[in-house]
Design a protein that fits this description.
Distance between the termini: 48 Å
CATH topology: Alkaline Phosphatase, subunit A
CATH superfamily: Alkaline Phosphatase, subunit A
CATH architecture: 3-Layer(aba) Sandwich
Structural class: alpha/beta
Largest sheet: 8 strands, mixed
Helix content: 25-40%
Radius of gyration: 22 Å
Number of domains: 1
Bound molecules: zinc ion
Strand order of the largest sheet: 6-5-7-1-8-12-2-13
Number of strands: 19
Oligomer: single chain
Number of helices: 18
Length: 500
Amino acid sequence: MPQLGDAIPSYVPRRRGDTVRRMTPPRIILVVVDTLRADYLGCYGDREKLTPNIDRLASLGVRFENAYSASNFTAPAVASLFTALYPVSHGVYDFRIKKLPPLRLMELVAQNGCVRKAVVDFGFFKSYLGRSFDDMESLTDLAPNWSTEGPVVETRRAVEWIASHKDEPFFLFLHISPPHAPYRFPGKYYEQITTGEKWRRTTELLRNHAVLGGLFPVPEGDRIPDGEIERFNRSARAIERLEVQDDGIGAVRDLYRMEVRVVDEMIGVLVGELERLGILEQTVLSVSSDHGEELWDHGSFGHGALAMHNEVIRTPWILCCPDRIPPAVVVETCVSQTNVLPTLLDLAGIDLSGVPAARSVKPLFAHPAPGASAKGRGDSPSVFSDTERWISVVHGGFKLIAPSKRRRFPTRAAKLRHALRRTKMMLAGNDRRGIELFDLRTDPGERKNLAGRQKKVVSALMVLVDGYYKTAELASVGGTDLSAAEEARIRKELDGLGYL
Ligand SMILES: [Zn+2]
């Protein structure tokens, strides 16, 4: 372990009023678990408590109770994560990224001498994030048979890399895609962690279910049968419209829960390695997701289509650095995905003053007593989530979902589905503009649309939405065009994943 004064440079926070503390060398690990919704984790209240490793991490650091994705699917959400900008400013609204937002925060990481490594599940990250890393490995490079135990391979690769770089300043981005459907861990992982009658009934139901059995095959033995992933992807659009009965919904939720449980095991491997190496105390470790997943909470399955309810846009965010963060702090103030990277850099002592958009939320948790709740600390921010179809704002305990001003539909079918949903809402007596309003303090499940009755609240939140669009600085953000060859490569990969 290098000491102060060794060849490794030391880093001193430069913000006025900060306690001057050195972190030598800064180590930052950003784990993004694709499609992980908050409420399936024990520390977020899941009664089955199947995530002991993530729960323990929360007890060692800070857990954000109300963290929101900046969008409802991967491409805009990850762009927000790395730029600290909302979609309206970085301009990434789908996977066919024409303009690449500048990644100024990652430039700061480089300027502070960190070696930058990424291990990611999706190869398309290389196109818009690859230039910000010294090395980015995607699962396609690591495990050609990615449908089976790729995430396990990724985690192993990440911990090996950490072990060989532990004495250097580093930034590691680990992106793992379970519990993104299709559920693909081999059955042997499930079998190691689950037993009992409930699981037997779940698997039996899925194997015998006329529709779900094909879409959600129960993994057995060492691998998922060939072709299952492709079959799921081909059917992905159909799943969004599938009418499923309660027992089928329960079975799919059980499979999702199993995926979350295996992800938790991998987080345990990562944390265990940091402890074995003796660097957990001085490592800024963040675990969050890009967005959540609807499991028929509001009548459909998936993310990125119609859904802006909390099962899709409320994400977990846990931050651990025992040397700098008191244990077991819960922050209840709403925070955004755009706060994640600035906060990690701030904790590592990297000066953010050159990136005006960067908002660290370190003041929300920096000084409370261990175990304290940070409820009410700081102001009451407005947190936005934005897609080409919907925009949502959470403010003062209320959440508004309104049609996007950028509204575009990729297909005629998507437009028709949207029209159908809006008609149903109008028939149900809700706001004619398709606006939904929920009081999250009394209705966290977003069951009771108050838009028709609370018109003053709707108007006030619509002012915030107008402000969101007005403050967009798309023109000033600029970007880099993708080459035609690069765009063709991305399209091919996305097609293979079932996105196009
Ligand atoms: Zn995603």
